[in-house]
Write a structure and sequence with these properties.
Structural class: mainly alpha
Distance between the termini: 14 Å
Number of strands: 0
Mean pLDDT: 82
Helix content: over 70%
Oligomer: single chain
């Protein structure tokens, strides 16, 4: 069962690594440029990305909760 959780989160972890390695080079750490983040197309893309990551985190949370309940009840 533990390997299933790793497999579920592996694509998101790889995506985070990809985004971090391809971030704009700035003098301080960060992924988003505060002056360009409010552009319409950039805002839509960031919002879509945020909702997809939220859905993956919620799926992982409830799957973990289910596995914990099943482990306690058995």
């Amino acid at each position: 069962m533990q390997y299933l959780g790793i497999v579920i989160m592996l694509p998101l972890t790889a995506y985070h690594a990809y985004r971090y390695l391809r971030r704009p080079r700035m003098s301080v750490l960060g992924v988003y440029d505060p002056t360009a983040v409010m552009n319409g197309d950039e805002m839509d893309r960031n919002k879509k990305e945020g909702f997809i990551k939220l859905a993956l985190y919620l799926i992982n949370f409830f799957a973990g909760l289910l596995w914990m309940i099943l482990a306690v009840s058995s």
